[in-house]
## 1
Amino acid sequence: MSSADRVASIMTTDPSDCDRCVIGIGADGMSLVLSIVAGALIVPVLILIGTATRLAAARREQRFAAMRLVGATPRQVSVISAVESTVAAVAGTLAGIALFFAFRPAIAQIPFTGERFFGGDLSLGLLDIVPVVVGVPLAAAVVARLALRRVQISPLGVTRRVTPSPPRAWRLVLLAAGVAELLYFVGRQPSSTNGQLIAYMSGFVMIMVGLVVAGPWLTLVGSRLLAARARRGAALIAGRRLADNPHAGFRAVSGLAVALFVTSVATGVMTTIVAERGEPRTGSVLSSALVQSFDTKGGAGGSKARIPAELASIPGVGAVHPVYANPEHEPSRPDWLPGLVPCADLARSPELGRCAPGAEVAYVWHDLLGPRRASNEPPVWAPAPVDAASVEKLPLLSVVVATDGSATAVERSRTVLEAAFPEVNRSPATVADYESDFRRTLVQWQQLANVVIVASLAIAGCSLAVGVAGGITERKRPFSLLRLTGVPIGMLRRVVTLESAVPLVFVALLAIGMGFVAAQLFLTSQLDYTLHAPGLAYYLAVAAGLLASFAIIASTLPLLRRITGPETARNE
């Protein structure tokens, strides 16, 4: 075929070793993204484990207390509780790993990031399996030990319970510390990927843990407001019971608070990135300028003499601009720019900016564009204290070819540049090329964010169901006594609903607000963007999540009639 081109080679440069090669995300970038995803999922999972372990804690406490009364030692009780929890956890862990391997071929076909996976992409090594097999049973044993600490103090401690001390406002300290850490890195972005990972992940995790720590105090505040404004018996009972033990009231909704925080952060970040960079710049030199960059480390770089003369004669090419490397290496300065260009040369392309009056050389970005958008006016570049003759002796930082945007001009210029500099790993590309690749990556990130949101909400829903059911089971004797005194079952259901709804609403508002604050600080620090308000879909998703939560609470209410009969109220 006359229109066919022969492919003589394929680029094999790793994304980690190539600056803007338009070939994907580097390993460091993937580590940062996947680490944030893992952190967003691990905390809700840990909350679910803790909530599930406490599901039958009240009944187990009474059973182990009875064993203590007939002569069992604290050590024997600890061993029994640890074995019970560990055996169940080991069985569940092994079953989970077996299910993973069974469903791995099907999971690999799901295009989470826009493309299907290879089976090897979802492989697990010993370093992945061993921590899970050891960590999950160990965590279950520790939680069981903590849940039964009152039995260890005294076998009568289970029945002689006292009102725990109310939570204090100091519980907000960890939340404030997470915000302060993210705020500290605004304008102080770590230079390495590992530094960024530690900085942002620790801040996000600190806020998530801070929400869990501050939740009981917020529940106490909400319970006091509910009791103070109560006009009916159900509201008064619910307010008093929440104030008596806000820790137990918050425990059921803690997973949902973390899920709403994750949802708000993910939505805020993705909405802003789409608004700032989702639409390509077209119709101007900003989208059609072709840039060939060079590596200038160690004094290396391109040479002006090697720029082919035929490049300027290609139809559709307006000008060819050599950009020289700035010898002053001060990237920490906010006004520092990496390139230098003679003003006489820059005047041939007014859309790329102009020099200040009287300047001979200007400081510029390597692509003569920088982060500006197509709607911005061409910039006035800062003057550089050097003459044009001296600048032309410096190594090239890049070559910028101003084209009319036609495929012929761009592709012929690209071919000429690649032939002139075959040793350069950076392929010549336009801003449109970069943004096209970024839009594909953005779609992948959006899908990954959706997976995180759905998974975290599903985990939170399980935690809510387990927490509400466990709370009803723990309080079945008080509820039975209330029924014996004439309280109708309908009022008890309203009490349970209010006890779950009050901490749910208060903590949801805080989690959503903290999510947007964290997203704003991350965007400002990492990308210098201002948070954009999410669209209607976000508010519908939050409303649907809250409605689903109330539906889950309602689904546990039939337990009240079954477990609050007269036989439960007897003295044991």
## 2
Amino acid sequence: MRKLYLLCVLLCAVVTVQAQTRALSGRVVDASNSETLIGAAVRVQGGTTGTITDVNGKFTVNVPNGQNVTLTVNYVGYAAQTVTFTANDQDVTIKLAAQQNSLDEVVYIGYQTVKRRDLTGSVPSVKAADIVRAPTHNPLEAIQGRAAGVDISRSSGNAGAGVNIQIRGTRSIPTALTNAAGINANGPLLVVDGVQNGGSINNINPNDIESIDILQDASSTAIYGSQGANGVIVITTKKGIAGKAKISYNGYYGINGWTKFPEPRQGEDYLNLRRESFRDPVTGVIPADNVVFNNAGELAAVQAGQFVNWVDLATQNGTQQSHTVSIRGGSENTKALFSLGYFKEESQYANNDYTRYNFRYNIDHKVNNWFKAGIVGQLAFNKTNGRRDPLSTALTANPIGVPFNADGSINTFPIAANTNTVSPITDERPGASVDETVGNEINATGYIELTPIKGLNFRSNLGVVLNNSRRGEFYDPFSLTQNNFRYSSASATNSGSRYYNWDNILSYNKTVNKHNFTATALTSYIHSENETFGATGLRQVLSSQLFYNLAGTDQAGRILSSSYQRYDLLAFAGRINYSFDGKYLLQASVRHEGASRLSPDYRWDTFPSVSAGWVVNRESFLSDVSQIDNLKLRASYGVTGNSTIPVYGTQSLLTSVPMGFGEVSAPAYIFNGQILTTDLRWEKSRTFDIGTDISLLKNRISATIDWYYTKTSDILFPRPLPLSTGQQTVYENIAATQNVGINASLTTVNIQSKSFKWSTTATFSHNSEKITNLIDGRDIINAEDNSLFIGSQIQSFYNYRKIGIWQLGENADGRAKFGTTAFKPGDIKVEDLNNDGLIDATNDRTVIGHAQPTWYGGLQNTFTYKNFDLNVFLVARYGQTIRAEFIGRFDPSGLTNGPGNFDYWTINNPTNDFPKPGRGNISNLYPGTYTSLLYLDGSFLKVKNLSLGYTFPKSVTDKIKVGSLRFYATASNLFTFTKSPLLKNYDPERGGAESSPLNRQLVFGVNLDF
């Protein structure tokens, strides 16, 4: 009986306890994309109860019944969240915001990872949540404006176009030779999952990326030697996870279009300019239209009112779509990820599109406690249908004629009786113009990792990238490409490359009391081979065979070409990391490297670096200041090298040329124009960097600021030779540059409550670059856009400075002249620098601007309200000068068309924008000065991305048996505000190019996890 009594008492106690608690369940997700977070720690504040989220991001904790409860949630890489729930809340969702400056965040610094708290270099990072905000195929375009010191712009509006990217300004001097060899002398190194140059960035699906780290200062980049001279972009892709398999789908579909481009003159606006050019300068009389429009068919078209907007006909609204399915899962010993992606973009031009398929895999296996192995890589296929850009033709074509035949087909010659000029949209005829490129990339990296004793680690990575591509082209006699020749052309080019990167890394970590040491030694070997073979033929017998049957072309016009290139790099490097009590940090590295591109006696060189950090807030005098979470001062110095010249740039190669002996032809050989270089050595950059990292108020405010100074010497440059030598150039180390700048980023959590959060991230970058030395200490004056001046930026514009248009009553005495001709009202007015009244090239041309901006930056605001999220991202570039090619389309004679917003001078309209009309082309009417019209202030502010999303509550997703579901809409390139009024219908991010302008995008997407 006593035992029964005690059992009853115990049961009553248990029931009483259970009645006093209840189960609170919910899930933890990423605030930006609602992706579930696995392994997040959930703890009941004021008690010991806690748990972690499962593979679906779900959790359940016991909390007091009938009371409000406060939960604290922590997850690596995210800001801790403290949320209070009422006694009735159930199935809650907790959103964590990615914390880019988290001290526990892992950062890649080259062959090694460290926690951000121990970082002594300048390494900004962009995480997955921000990378996928922009609807693009190129991950680097997605991070534009999100990392200080990284200047990114899209190269064109063509489907599948890449980006232009520079880190901390321009150091080397690009030349025609390096550009022709496909070398970006100022481009950063791309490292993908540890492999240098690990495949084309265009083949990487942004949805597969976990993070992008940008190594900027020499303490981070010197470990890569010549490869890291212009900064390093490290891409880490997503990996498998332990636990139940997680299946995800991310996709969107939308429209590309609404392109900002100047509208051409139409109707009476065009006719009046043409008529004005015929005005008699003495009598002021304009002759009749049969005199003004005297070309065949023009007058009839004008009288019939057959006006055409060729720009409108040449452009369209395209589409863009992306679909990615991934699966992540595994056990504690084996983890895997598989991802399949599809992307397609159709541009604003018909027959211009880009398609990509890619399959990514990542498998890690733990054999035992001291042996791991894995493989990561991808298979990618892409196809691009390109075409000659029609905008220049469409903008300048006479806006009259009949564009289509009665059956709807394109009228090749839209102006009757005029067969000299083809239609601007002639390439849209079926089979008239074909430019098709297909490519395959096989990318695989295998590794083994050994940990024989505690602290000792050895890792060997072997990365292989195999590429092959084929470009086929066909242009019929009436295509834009062949219009001047009136016979067809066909060609095919096949290329293949093999790239290997083998790294062996040995590291040892040891902690003794408050001292921590990590020593790393490594070897790195790179081998690259590239082969191309091409054939061209003319007058294809059957146009329908395009480029597939070059044997059907004229035998006499066939041309064969082939090439082979190989280069090798071998390096040995070491690095030591030391910290004392987490307060004092020191890092030193050295790399000894050899490059096959350089002269045999100068191929090897050494690149050292050293950096230090002081975590000030860990000192006793700040220990009581709870508002400071982190205050670190950093300094670094290092040397990097550059060997980016053509593979055989130090050698004199032979080139075959045809020779004739009477009527007999025979091959002959000449040197290729380059003299053998026996003393070409490394180009070197020496960088000093001072920086600070600050976090305040429990990471509600965090900032990073860096100041840097870089001197680059012995710049590799092809020096022109006198004709008497019989050669053209010789590569020498003959120039020097300097870069000084400031990079800053600031992140603030402005408002954070249970239902609403507002956070802001701003980046700012200023770089001042100049050439400090050239050949013999003298400027190199070539064309307007490629002259080099000591004390100016590398890409400076050299011309007359336009200050307006000569007005009535000005220069009445005829003192101001160009040559012997006095300026008249309506002429272009340029600045007379020496005030002698005579405008001449020697004394009055000057540097009128630079391509690099004074500063650039980005501003991101993220708002979340309950299940809604809104992200607004702006980018800006200020102080850049652009050469606006479309400005050069102003034709004062009116014989060709041009932008309709060009306000030209007349007696009744004394504008200062463009000169008066007249007979003849602009170069004859305004010799020397007309090109001054082209250079404009290209400063702009752009709403780059605007995204609105909604995440369905857990009560809904549970009913439909999914983990999470989010729908969103994103608009890109939405609004652009320019400083120059002449750019109001043009997006200056394109840099002034007339062809392939950037367009707007509107996409609708979904993020779904099962």
## 3
Amino acid sequence: MKTKLSLLALTIVLITGNSAIAAGGGGVVADPGAMQGKHFDTKGKAPSTFTVELQNGLRKTLPFEDKRDFEESKRGFIAAPSYKTIMADAGNVAWDMGSYDFLLQGKDFDSVHPSLQRQAILNMGYGLYEVVPGKIYQVRGFDLSNISFVKTNTGWIVFDPLTSKETARAALELVNEKLGKRPVVAVVYSHSHADHFGGVRGVVDEADVKSGKVKIIAPAGFMDHAVAENVYAGNAMTRRLYFQYGVLLPRSPFGHVDQSIGKNTAAGNLGLIEPTILINEPFEKMTVDGVEMEFQNTPGTEAPAEMNTYFPQLKAFWAAENITGTIHNIYTLRGALVRDALAWSKNINNALYRYGNEAQVMFASHSWPRWGNDRVQEVMRTQRDSYAHLNNEVLHLANNGVTINEVHNVYKQPDSLKSQWAAHSYHGSEEHNSRAVINRYLGYWDANPATLIPLSPKDSAPLYVEMMGGSGKIMAKGRQLYQHGKYREAMEIVNKLVYAEPNNTAAKDLLADIFEQIGYQKESPSVRNSFLGAAYELRHGMPSGASPKTNGPDMIKAMTTELWLNALAISMDSKKAAGMRFTINLSTPDNGEKFVVEMSNSALSNIKGYQDKNPHLTITLNRSDLEKVMGGQATFEKLLAEGKAKFEGDRKAFEQLRSTMTTFTPDFELMPGTKAKKAPPAKPSKDPFEAPPIANSDGA
């Protein structure tokens, strides 16, 4: 499989009419050899004897006798559709559940951690399920997340309408076909990640929302966080996502097997319709078309804006993405602000004491429901205690001198949690979550001055290589360690060689072999994918092709003017701004916003609600027209020519600002020596004021 072709794995966001193809890991790279257990890569290796021994040991010690998750994942099944592929409106495959059918052969794969293989099989549930008889239903296996349907007096309330319009539309059609056609009267967004709102246009018409016919309910802060969380470092996040989501990996026992909270992300049209009702209080009751609900705001848990929902009439608790079939990310590998494990634990505890005593079923926007009050309380406590133990034990270790560079080798869950499947870290991992807790409270420094201002790896690596006697000795020792199953030790020295000699193909191939075995052994698919993805790029180079675009009209509309101005300041090359000094007043009359934009000391700042008394330039245009610039559909010059924008003062300030702008493209190396020497030049944005790409937030 060639690197150029493997770019098809990307769910690249392309502007297509009034929509945008969703970003994420959902591009379909099916492997025809997966069913036969053939490795997709000619350079790929089978699991070593050490990896096989490890997997066999895990099969004997993991709690496989507890089969309740399998029973619950199948309970309430009504029907599966006749198809396993859903096409996007743009003509590409948006979803292909059949590409994972190799998991259903009933065989053990030594190239997959046994616990992860179990989770991957559980996530193969596909079709329509009943959660509460006659009242609550879910469609699972149509996207990374679940879409839930609550029957009202006259229609449906839809909870979390997936990532893409096409998969959400197909889910609604399946529900109406099997249960009788009913209108959607409300949509609830549980939180601000794209796989929980992106498919809204597949279940409702925006005109019905604007007329008040359909309510859209979301937690306070939803609109800000739906975009803001992924803008400032969006380009870097997009590139790093290649590893976390295994974007280049075919669906294979040797490649992508699962994404822990679902199979993968759909590659269809992502949209966003602004909520009409925001939940502001910690607990807020509401009745919609005969259905009573109490929303529990849980900000700062799995998302900056998130909420659970309780249905007192049905004794059903909807846990959003706060309680699923995995311990989640405290730090997500694509990049995001570190989350608060203690706050997460306390919010679960609040739900346990407020609803747990009477809830008879708990369902969520990922994974499968749990039934019976004892079972609901058990899983709530297990996850509450997992986050609490992580937070408290890591800080206990830190207060005893364990550093961020040691804690991942020291922190362990207690046996009482290890024996419970709901405490396993598929989306997260104990290693990266434990480091995240220290980073949240103490930062990245381990307090050794030698690590405070270290050399860059490319500068330090040659010193190590020289002192170790050169590449020949390192390769010999690396191969010896590899052959003895000491993969992390081998990684330590061969990684230095690759940084020192990025064009050393033999070294890169050996490091790829090492990464591959480590990946096979990991329970977390994010960690597995990262090692296997890095191995793929070491062997075949980075993907090449057009850079992704992620900004559809809905996301641009949701981006505040202040957020766009802040992003421009990040896009600015400060070296080009040396000596520049100006102020620009920006006014958007249609929404009454005013800003002062100031260039000073090679930094671009802005402030809302002010106008400078003596600006160098004043720019006036409607926010609706500014959105065309932000979305790349127009330029300031075009709007000036059409009379839709007005410049008053010295245009030099505008030209100076334009001259400092750069366009980010996710075409930088994550591993040394993987970028083509003569890579095609990236095509710049057609206008430097176009908003930067928004990184994908599917599955956090």
## 4
Amino acid sequence: MPAAPLGDAGSGPFGALRDQLTEAAAAFAGSPDALAGILAGIVDDVDRALGERLEIFPVCHHSPASGLAMLRRLRVKQPKVIYLELCEDLQPLLGELRNCRLPVAVQAFASELDGFPTDWAPLSVIAPITEASAEYQAIAYALQTPGVELVLVDRSTDHVFQWSPRHRAQQAADDDGAPQVAEDDGAPPAAAAETGEATTVGAAEEAELHGDAVGVEIGDLRPRFAELEAHLLHHGKVRHWSEWWDQYVERPLVDADHDTYRQVMVLIGSLFRRLRPSDANRTGTDEDRERYMWTRIRQHLAASGADPADCLYVCGAFHAASRVEQFGLDSTAPAFEITERSGTAWRYGLIPSSHSAIEAQFGLAPGSVSIAAATWAKAVSRAGVTPYRLSGRTERSRAGGGRRGARAAAPPAGATPDEVTDRLSGFLAAPAEPDGLDAAELRGWCVDIVRLARRNGYLASTADAIAVFEHSILLAGLRNRARPTVYDFTDAAVTCIEKDVVPGRRDVRRLCEILLGGDRIGQVGYDSLPPLARDVLDRLRPLGLDLEKRTISRALLDLRADPGLGACSDLLWMLRYLLPPTTVRPIMGERRLGHRSIQESWDLALGRDQRALIELGYEGVTVEQVLELRLRRAVRHPSATAATALAAVEDAICLLDSPRLVDELGTRAVELLAAERSVDDAPDVLRRIRRLLAHYQATAAHLPAWCAAFVTTGYAHYCTLLPTTVIDEETGTRQVGAMLGFLFSMESVAISLGCDRSQLEIAVDQSKPEEPAKVALLWAARHQLGILPLAELRQWCAALLDNPLVVPAFPRYLAGFVHALEPVPGLAPFVVETLSTAFARLPDPVLLPWLPTLITTLREQGPELVPLLVREAGRTFPPTVAELDVWVPPWHGPAPVPVSGGSPAGPSPRVSALLTGHPAATDAVAALLGCAGDWQPVPSSVGTAGGTASAAGGAALVAAHPATGTAVATLLATTPGR
């Protein structure tokens, strides 16, 4: 949009100033064109803003000077209607500020989007409010003064995202079919400190109070031209913008009259507006906001019939210098067309804020908001005025008295507003008023900072206090200041006390912030909390703790002595699932399938993390409802997997007593498993379905329908994927082992539900892996199916050790055998045997380079299965070193004794003697098998004197199963003392 005309030289109250600036520009630049146009245009902007029939009150966010000027103007003018630059849909929340301790932030939150890209979720907009801000003084005045109407006129929170450049780029990409990149002006600025110094731990924690919400503020008065800001900082001899603003704008305007304040603020807003880079997106958004606000103002005036002389328009100084065609009540430009809101359902509430959170979100210097609060308190005390405050129900009578006092200063009826006079010329030409050194104040700072530093581990003394005092005065003199400012004092304290060592968590700069007011943290009162948050506090009341405090509370629950605390325990476990880990943290006790602790201990920080609890209230009315919605949302997410759904099933069983929800989530798990084309989550699926099967087998008469369907679907699914995944290089050995573990561990259940075992046999037969670990896995699977005998598997492993070309890769085979313990746990003795054989046979030149590879492979690929191997080795090897010398490995024991004559091997004479000498065991086995009988005489060839022979049933049993007797005889032969 082209600049507004300069106007006639010498016309209006600022004609002399316009002529003076034009002549200075011509003398300075050698041409009256560019620079003269800028300077004269600034004067025209001031003239235009102050000549408007509707009084415009320009402000800067969190500025004590703006707050004090607003306080004075409200007491003098006492407007009946206040138009405020704030999102119009936030107005119903402002009354809840009376139940809060500032600073707090008004928030709009949306988790389910309609009309915006889903990857933007959740959307959050916040508007922080401090007591020193001009907007809070206007809000408090309007809400506590009868007959005063407060109207918010800025764009809605929905339009904040509708007008963001990234949304416009998304729409353009949808229309053109090509993606476009645009910078998002709705994104919060960088949270790093302007000084470039590291933020302390405490400040970093408090800086997260606003999260990733988009900040909305009144009067973002800062140059958008980097070169201009750098020029101002350099010539002002300051380190960051907050210090420049405090020295050159804030302090001169604190005691300025109303007309001077308005003219200077509009002048600064116009200067920054004209010297900003040409950004079409940012400029268009700013001008649309101004058109929006003036349109809403005219609509309200037309509907209410209010007199503009009784109204006040509070907006940022940047927008006060607006040049849009809709500016002013007398504009003849067509009304701005306001688009409809999207279908997104927004939820509103208040969240706690803090000084550091405001500084981090809006790119202010650390401590600047705390310094502003201290400046505000000092200025209010010096001026002798009482600021407006929203009081709770118990303080209404006292607040009412304050209002009556304010009304006493009202101007007489029928008074006309004063004419605009030029106050800029005198303000800009007059030198800064000398402000003498307040030695008592500076001395108190120095003494207090030394005391605070000693408490935090610094070796500070009285000499350091003197050094800080003198150094502060020296720094102020070097920076052309009449008296040391807070920033000078902070720099001096860092130089004289901290030096180069920080003994604790807080550095001296942070200690100075604490000394000058600290990082004040707000709190939302109980009456202003959403229903869910109030319900949580009410349900946890039996704990007997004050959960609204910001300290961490320890809750002890003895559920056996007081069963009534079981409801509190259930609620705490649900909150642990929904809230951040530090908000509700269990110290003792656990909640898992089939297990409930009888004693629990919790650390609760609900008062400190109010924001998380409040935003939880935006999602539902009760915790159970929100948890159910979260679980459903998790399994319906596009990236959800079968493992995700099984985890949701476990959580639903442990936290919610809702079989209907469990069946729904389990059915979804079956659908996700059938649709998966990879086995990346197979280990997680196997672990979770095993736990669920064990739970149902222990607590239910039969498996739920969804669980049976999951087993049958998984059996067929993994049988189908097995031949392709074993040859896929991207599929790891652990995933293949988990697949086989599912197939073998669920085999009995799957077959009982109608699955065919031949499907598994065909899948194993069709699998032809090449990677050594997967080859070993398939060998173990074939052994489990009975296709590969253990003797043949032992021969294959011996052949691998005999082949010098294969020995370097033998650790990978061993890794496969280790993973095979998942599907074939009975293979553990063989794995121990294979490892022992390798260590016994391989020479040191081969074994030593091979050993690190083995350890690394086992650590990376099978850390959870190695303990099984260690336990098996502990059972196999002798317990003492003395027994190791005479120990014979079981796989090297004597072979069975064959029977002569070529007949099948039968029991040896010692076996027959053992059985006849101890017939009780044989009788028990025979009775169990249903073949009990009488004992008959033993033939003399057996070698026993007299005695009895085995009964027909016992003899038949021993003859049919000779291996058992042979094993017993071998054990007796190898046992010492036998």
